[in-house]
Amino acid sequence: MNQFKLQGINHLALVCRDMARTVDFYTNILGLKLIKTIALPDGGQHFFFDVGNGDALAFFWFPNAPESAPGVASVDPERLKKGDIVTAHGSMNHVAFNISLEHLQDDHQKLSDLGIPTTRILHRADVPSGYVEQQNETTFISSFYFFDPDGILLEFAAKTRELGDPKRDLQHEPATATN
């Protein structure tokens, strides 16, 4: 049953520490276009970037926002090195941008050349470990991760096949919390 006629994501709103630094990173490093700026009544700001397909990534800057909480509200960079990406319930874990598979290696190298640390390219696959060393017929997404200046985990993700095949992709029942 499709009660709503959703057409994608309008925008995802995150919080930054420094709007000028955020604009610099997302426009000059990632190449996104700034499409809307708003001054908030409390002195804060709300800016929007075009991420393609009519979708946007937005940032709030609040003058009196609390400090970030890596490992709780966002991924802890030190724990990510060990493969641990656990964050608190209700938190925003990461933002994954679609890229083409043909550009994955080049984009990985470009970020490295700009001095932005990245993970190695990971090949998510339908195997018990969840990953394979080299892309193969079990792979459904190849991607890598990196952080923005505020510690928001970002991912460049390339689909290796379409998802949604009931026999291949929909094999698990949703878990229920026990407490």
Record the SSE blueprint.
Layout: E1 11-16, H1 19-29, E2 33-39, E3 45-52, E4 55-61, H2 77-80, E5 95-98, H3 104-113, E6 122-125, E7 131-132, E8 139-147, E9 153-159, H4 166-169
Parallel strand pairs: 1-4, 5-9
Antiparallel strand pairs: 2-3, 3-4, 6-7, 6-8, 8-9
Proportion of strand residues: 25-35%
Please provide the count of β strands.
9
Strand order of the largest sheet: 5-9-8-6-7
Please name the CATH architecture of the largest domain.
Roll
Our count of domains comes out at 2
Mean pLDDT: 90
Helices and strands, in order, run as EHEEEHEHEEEEH
Commentary on this structure:
The chain has 179 residues and is α+β, with helices and mostly antiparallel strands. The protein folds into 2 domains: 1-66, 2,3-Dihydroxybiphenyl 1,2-Dioxygenase, domain 1, CATH 3.10.180.10; 67-170, 2,3-Dihydroxybiphenyl 1,2-Dioxygenase, domain 1 (Roll). Helices cover 16% and strands 30% of the residues. It is built from 4 helices and 9 strands. The protein has helices at residues 19-29, 77-80, 104-113, 166-169, and strands at residues 11-16, 33-39, 45-52, 55-61, 95-98, 122-125, 131-132, 139-147, 153-159. The strands form 2 sheets. A 5-stranded mixed beta sheet has the order 5-9-8-6-7, covered by helices on one side. A hairpin with a 2-residue loop joins strand 3 and strand 4 (55-61). The two termini are 30 Å apart.
